[in-house]
Amino acid sequence: MCTYNTVITELNGSAKGPSSKWFHVDHATVYYDHPVHAMAGHALNIDIADPSAGPGQRVALELTAESARALVQAIEDALAAVPPEIIAAG
Fold first, then answer.
1. Rounded distance, CA 75 to CA 38, Å?
2. What is the pTM of this model?
3. 44 burial level (CB within 10 Å; 0-12, 13-18, 19+)
4. pLDDT tens digits for 28-44?
5. Cα(52)–Cα(4) distance, integer angstroms
6. What residues have CB less than 8 Å from 46, skipping those under 6 apart?
């Protein structure tokens, strides 16, 4: 069953795309649906892109729910280990 629940969030960062070149990213689209490539019935799909540069300027992830939760926890753990003054200066 498809939920059609899509969350779009603004970003400020960089990503390395299929051409192995870095590019600016300004938003992510996140949704839980059928994956295109991952071997799962459903996946958390994350599309990180700079739409102003065309459809090729993107990085896409398809993660199982368990893997997506592990990634969220790893991000939280990494940020929690950084002294606040470094994050404020970033």
1. 22
2. 0.82
3. buried
4. 999 998 887 878 888 99
5. 24
6. 28, 29, 30, 60, 61, 62, 63
